[in-house]
């Protein structure tokens, strides 16, 4: 456990909000943050405050400050319906290079998963899906996990350096993630290269576009049915990872994104998918990325992610 605390920095205590009202407790008063709280925790929060991958991908920077901005909103919420013990480990130590940061992040996530914790990872750029995915494969086995990328983009770019657009191509080509265990969910065809789409299609990646999600009354129905059809016999053996890139939400509801779009999921639809992730007994980790507080309006985006984190904590199986 000592390595976990040497690889991370403690969360800013000023973010742990309190009203000093025993009749109105807030998460800032109930979520553990001291080392002694870790052992009994069931859900752990881990931040990765960097946006080097976004910079490399020619995106607008600002996601590095997202973990603190999201925490500020999360700790103002009440613990209503949260029965699980939640612990905030703080932030991964940022290295001299993105690759060094990823290695520290991977090692930290591996230890958390081996300790039986469920994780909420808050970025940062979407490049953290690579070390998160490697950790899932290392702990549970390369053939024994499912990755679900809820994103308006495919994130399978070819590039000289890893960046926020390359994580799933890295996982696929390095053999950490079998293509038939990978779901691309919520992508918008006008934002995706037809060459990269053909790449995932030929590999046999599971694909659910924004249009297909919208073909049902509830946004999670298509995903539920596809997982049931494909992996029902493996439900007790396959661990699950959900990556939520906030770019997947329309800019009216999430203006503070690295790459905003006027089209996308509505805020309520994102929450519905997070609740679905929480309902799966084998969901080991969810990840929120590409929140850019520099471009947010009235903290709309950080509040949305904070609420999503709350729903994961309150609906975890």
What would your notes on this structure say?
This protein is α/β, with parallel strands linked by helices and 317 residues long. The protein has a single domain (2-315), classed as 3-Layer(aba) Sandwich (Arginase, Chain A), CATH 3.40.800. Helix content is 37%, strand content 16%. The protein is built from 13 helices and 9 strands. The protein has helices at residues 2-6, 27-30, 35-38, 52-56, 66-74, 98-114, 129-140, 167-173, 194-203, 210-213, 221-231, 267-279, 300-315; strands at residues 8-9, 43-48, 86-92, 118-123, 145-150, 182-187, 206-209, 239-245, 283-289. It has a 9-stranded mixed β-sheet with strand order 1-3-2-4-9-8-5-6-7, sandwiched between helices. The longest helix has 17 residues, at 98-114. It is globular and about 55 Å long. The two termini are 25 Å apart. The mean pLDDT is 95.
């Amino acid at each position: 456990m000592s390595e976990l605390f040497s690889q991370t920095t403690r969360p800013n205590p000023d973010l742990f909000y309190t009203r000093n009202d025993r009749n109105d407790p807030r998460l800032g008063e109930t979520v553990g943050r001291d080392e002694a709280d870790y052992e009994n925790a069931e859900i752990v929060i881990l931040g990765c405050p960097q946006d080097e991958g976004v910079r490399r991908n020619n995106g607008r920077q600002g996601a590095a400050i997202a973990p603190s901005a999201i925490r500020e909103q999360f700790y103002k919420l009440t613990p209503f319906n949260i029965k699980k013990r939640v612990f905030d480990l703080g932030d991964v130590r940022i290295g001299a290079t993105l690759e060094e940061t990823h290695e520290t992040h991977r090692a930290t996530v591996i230890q958390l998963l081996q300790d039986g914790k469920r994780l909420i990872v808050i970025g940062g750029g979407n490049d953290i899906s690579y070390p998160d995915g490697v950790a899932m494969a290392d702990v549970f086995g390369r053939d024994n996990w499912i990755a679900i990328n809820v994103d308006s983009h495919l994130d399978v770019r070819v590039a000289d350096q890893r960046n926020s657009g390359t994580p799933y191509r890295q996982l696929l080509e390095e053999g950490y993630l079998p293509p038939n265990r990978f779901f691309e969910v919520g992508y918008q065809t006008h934002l995706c290269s037809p060459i990269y789409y053909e790449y995932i299609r030929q590999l046999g990646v599971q694909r659910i576009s924004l249009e297909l999600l919208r073909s049902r009354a509830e946004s999670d129905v298509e995903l539920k049915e596809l997982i049931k059809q494909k992996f029902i016999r493996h439900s007790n053996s396959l661990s699950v990872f959900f990556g939520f890139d906030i770019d997947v939400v329309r800019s009216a509801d999430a203006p503070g994104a690295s790459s905003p779009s006027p089209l996308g999921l509505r805020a309520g639809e994102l929450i519905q998918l997070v609740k679905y992730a929480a309902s799966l007994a084998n969901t080991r980790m969810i990840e929120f990325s590409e929140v850019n507080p520099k471009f947010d309006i009235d903290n709309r985006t950080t509040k949305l992610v904070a609420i999503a984190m709350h729903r994961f904590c309150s609906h975890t199986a």
